[in-house]
Amino acid sequence: MSNEDGFTNRFFRLTRELPGEHPVLSVIIVLEVIFLMLPTLIVLVVSFQGGDLVRFPPDDLSLQWYAQIPGEQRFIDAFYRSVAVALFCTLLAIPIGILTGLGLIRYDIRFEKSLQIYFLLPFTVPLVVSGVILLIILGELGYIGQLWTVGLALTIINIPFMIWSVTSRVNALDPQLENAAKNLGADEIQTFFNVTLPSLMPGVITGSLIMFVLGLNEFLVSLIITTPDIVTLPVLIYTSIRSNISPLVAAVASVYVVVAFLAVIVADRLVGLEQFLKS
Predict the structure, then answer these.
(1) In this model, does residue 17 exceed pLDDT 60?
(2) Which of 49, 153, 193, 213 has CB atoms 3.0–4.6 Å from 58's, for a disulfide?
């Protein structure tokens, strides 16, 4: 028996001793989570470096870089711009997602096949290609250099996620609830706001949080279409580490990760993570 076969046998004997119905799958999931979390944990640890140079592990621990963040106006302004872009994406995506989700399920749309292809664009078209196309279009229209155009571009790219989230709730909606409301004398508008929309709210909230997090963290498209006056925080972090890798940047990035993590906590409090994952 080769050494490789012996290692494999020992691995499977070990996994059979682990608790749970699927021990091998549990081990794989744990390894994947560690693999995904490791870069974030390294950045978090580096942000506590006491010196001016990035070292891992740190020579000594200090909170001095976090204390400097309130005085770094460029990072604060970029963060506000990122939040504004994310809010713009979210507010614009809500009515589009609701109306499109209802239309796709309830009505026979002429260009439904084309829309289905469009929904696959986030997975089929590289973001750099989408960014260049949007740069050309916005440049021809003369809108480059305005913050709302960044939000519009990110909405165009990420809106399929919102539509998928709402569509999943439309599929689960019982038509008898709307029919009962109409039989009791409610018109179309009353039925929509009192029956349909409340039933879709878990999907709407889930899609809104996805749009907000994606808009907050989007880097590549923002890098292409932003100007120096309207850079978002991910772009500013990138440009900062190109000239000087400082623990300050690691501290800013850590705070940024915490904000995204808080969005997940909000999702758990509002609709529950189980419902969040189903949507």
Answers:
(1) no
(2) 49
φ/ψ (deg, to 5) at 272: 85, 140
What is the mean predicted confidence (pLDDT) over 81-97? 91
What structural domains does the chain harbor?
3-65 (no CATH), 68-278 (1.10.3720.10)
The stretch 253-264 carries a mean pLDDT of: 79
What's the pTM?
0.76
HSE of 218, CA atoms in CB hemisphere, 13 A: 34
Q: Residue type at 113?
A: K
Who's near 35: CB < 8 A, 6+ residues apart? none
Q: Is residue 81 a contact partner of residue 236, using CB atoms and an 8 Å limit?
A: no
| Burial readout 93-127 (b: 16 or more C-beta within 10 A, e: otherwise) | bbeebbebbbbbeeeeeeeeeeeeeebeebeeeee
Whole-number Å distance between alpha carbons of 247 and 226:
25
CA angle 100, 101, 107 (to 5 degrees): 80
CB count in 10 Å sphere of residue 227: 11
Q: What is the DSSP string of 23-80?
A: HHHHHHHHHHHHHHHHHHHHHHHHTTBSSSS--SS-SSB--HHHHHGGG-HHHHHHHH
DSSP class per residue in 137-206: HHHHHT-TT-HHHHHHHHHHHHHHHHHHHHHHHHHH--HHHHHHHHHTT--HHHHIIIIIHHHHHHHHHH
**Distance (Å, whole) CA 173 – CA 178:** 9
- For the chain, the C-alpha Rg in angstroms (whole number) is 24
> CA nearest 275: which of 199, 174, 163?
199
β-partners of residue 135 are: none
H or E, element range at 91: helix 73-106
